[in-house]
Amino acid sequence: MNLSFRFARAFTVLVFFVLITGFAILYFAFERATMRSAILKLEDLNTYVAHRLEKDSTYDYLKFHHRQTQINILPLNSKNIKEKIIEEKYIWNKSIQSHMNRITVTTYPVIHHKRYAITSVRYITIIENNFLMSIIMVIAWIMVFLIILTIIVSILVSKKFLILSIMR
To answer: Each residue of 83-127: pLDDT tens digit?
Structure first.
């Protein structure tokens, strides 16, 4: 019986660390996937606006993209212009009383011999502490059920081995 309880303890500790590590990996993977998805969508939006400007120089981007996209015409001899600039900044949003992640993608295409700065912005809310605590509580309940199940299985296994050793 002593061996099975040691096995149960070792198994419980192992499962606990695997669950915590898995949760951390999953959390950061979701956060990164969300950010990467937003950046890709903003890059696609900038490409779309550039193509529309190329086809029709009177394209009204404000009508279709509201405040999400800004277009500026830059001098052609502007120096230190990169292909694109991606910025991530945590800001406080007064209207929803929460921190948000502001993602900005700026591209610099040359269209009809004019250099444009096309800037698109997206806001993503950050996981709040209440939501994070609820996820941690789910992991805690999983651990409780695993501990109970491990104890029950170890008792059943030890009784089976006890019965087998008595029968010999």
So the answer is: 889 999 988 888 878 888 899 999 998 888 888 889 999 988 877
Cα-based distances in Å from 156 to 5, 15, 153: 11, 20, 5
Question: What is the spatial distance between Cα 52 and Cα 106, in angstroms, rounded to a whole number?
Answer: 16
CA distance 13 to 77: 63
Name the nearest CA neighbour of 5 among 154, 149, 148: 154
Q: Which helix (H) or strand (E) holds 14?
A: helix 2-55
User: In angstroms, rounded to a whole number, what is the distance separating the alpha carbons of residues 41 and 105?
Assistant: 10
**CB-neighbour burial class of residue 154 (10 A; exposed 0-12, middle 13-18, buried 19+):** buried
Question: Nearest to residue 31, comparing CAs of 106, 103, 119?
Answer: 103
CA 93/CA 7 separation, integer angstroms:
51
Q: Residue 53: count other Cβ atoms within 10 Å of its Cβ.
A: 19
Residue 78 burial by Cβ neighbours in a 10 Å radius (0-12, 13-18, 19+): exposed
Asked if residue 79 has pLDDT above 80, the reply is no
Buried/exposed code over 126-153 (b: 16+ C-beta within 10 A; e: otherwise): eeeeeeeeeeeeeeeeeeeeebeebeee
